[in-house]
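explain this.
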Amino acid sequence: MATMVLTVAGTALGGPIGGAIGALVGQRIDHELFAPKGRDGPRLTELAVQTSSYGSAIPWLFGRMRVAGTVIWSTDLIETQGRSGGGKGQPAATRYSYAASFAVLLSGRPIQAIGRIWADGRLVRGAAGDLKVKAGLRVHLGGEDQAVDPLIASAEGATPAYRGCAYLVFEDLPLGEFGNRVPSLSVEVIADAGAVAMRAIAGAFGAEADGSTVDGFAASGSVAGVLAVLAQVAGGRWTSDGAVMRLRGDATPLALDDAGATAAGGPAGMARGRQIAAPGRAALAVAVRHYDPARDYQAGVQRAGGPGASAEVVELPAALSAGAAKTLAGAMVARAGVERVRRSVTLGFAGLAVRPGMTVTLGGEAGRWQVLSVLVEGMAVRLTLAPVAFVPQVLTASSGRAAMAADDAVGATLLHVVELPSLEERRLDRPRVTVVACGTGAGWRRAALLWSADDGASWTPAGDSGAAGVIGTIERAPLAAPATLIDRAGVMIVRLARTGMVLAEADDAALDRGANLAWAGGELIQFGRAVSLGAGRWRLERLLRGRRGTESGVATTGAAFVMLDPERAVAIDLPMTALGGAVRVMASGVADPEPVEARTTINGLSVRPPAPVGLGWRQGVLRWVRRSRLGWTWSDRVDAPLAEEREEWRVTIIRANGDRRDLSSGTNSVAVDLAEGDRVEVRQRGTWTESLPAVLTMGEA
């Protein structure tokens, strides 16, 4: 803006020459007012963003840090196909899953170990070293005798061992949960045990330093940039004796005497001058961006200084607590205020022994000064000094709230397999089993499934299980109750597999939509009320019994309790030859040393029609009411649809004397003479198998 104004004014007053002079003056003013801030050391984003570019800087890590690293090798995506479905009238579906193997370079110096690993912000390796994904992981610590990674060598042939550099290799990492792409990793690297001293960091670059410690530090870029950052943390300036750079914050000061000449031909003694910069030239507030261990090493910002003042932002690639970062920001503000004062001292040749960064005292004046520059001019030595700032008090600060990934143990896989009637408004034409799995730990996610219908002679992949389901055991079974009414008196107490599992309540409308449906030892049950009793125990009330025609099964104490959430259950369609046999299902989770197996007998519950109801005999005619595998929601308010190829019934009459007779009928009635003691069984003949019988014994109430 000043350039434009003064150019116009100069042109108006002095013509072209005046315009040029005005432009030069304006540019100088603009530079002073709007000068860009210099870069304060390495950026934090250089550690937070994973790259795979040639020429990327590899940081030297100290202490404990969280870094993204650089991808140095990877394979193409590894594709796996799986098929499901293909039953009568249903097309087969082909599923594709992908995995990848890749290597990530972490540090340009050796490390001791790695801790947690995040992938797209999700924890995939816990602090205990437990992987939460089914993949191989190898860590190369960067020793000078480091061997070549076998996977990289098998894929590439001749390959470097990257000795002196720490890197990790993921082998066959599943990508389904990351959008079928290689996720962005960040790794907690343990380069040194405990906090690291400034002396150790400076020593790695051939310098010497005193000062405090930090939890972690990432050195990248030029050596000068790294040393400048260390000086900011320590609150001093570097000095050199021609061989070694040193940073001594508490060094013994050098006393300057009043002897010598000020300049050629000048009076003897020590000439002094003083200059105080305007308040606006010093930083009134400083904001330090750092990695906060309390926030899983996410970036934090701590500010110190006057309210409303524009803060100078300092990016510090170090792991510091919130209090330490705020104390550092306060120290920077204090130093900026004190160092507004500049002293210039002119000495004789004795001043040649003074070097920038040294601490001195002035004869006749209190306080200590630090040498900013040394200038030899006119047979004299001119020193520019700044006061040594006081050590500020330790400040306290809060890290604030951070969204951190839970480091939950995965635990062993728990598996339950059951044959169920169709839970959808769709007829099943093949036997089906439903698989629900969970883990003993809250970190369990999924497990790979295999099934066999020939007693393990062959196994068929079934993809992954659903998300962790809710599985438990019935501790107290409810008493018998009809399936036609809400069981308000019945109570069922269950113990869930983990204390963190939760059951919810449901109103009548939600129950009508199928909420809170559970398999309870052979019976499908819904519940409207769930009360936590503590320690993973729940009391269930307002029960709906025998749902979808399962009233013949009875919940018993000790039987399995399995919540049937469509998002957490996986259905496996079986061949018709599986009817009457057993099906075995194996699940392999991340923490399972061996696959977990469950089995069930296929009795046809998934494909048979439900038993008829309302069986009665009057005036020589036996009548009953047909039920269907479909239409349980009764949305059209008319008769239940016929879910079989045709309506056909088998009526078995067992006389009191033991004689047995079978009748067939195409309707829900048949004319027959019955006497006291006779027993009647009515079964619907379905497309694949018969229903369970409805039973009537003459003479019984």
Remarks:
- The chain has six domains: 1-35, 45-79+98-193, 197-247, 254-387, 413-601, 613-697.
- The first strand starts at residue 60 and ends at 67.
- The domain at 613-697 is CATH 2.60.40.10 (Immunoglobulin-like).
- The radius of gyration is 40 Å.
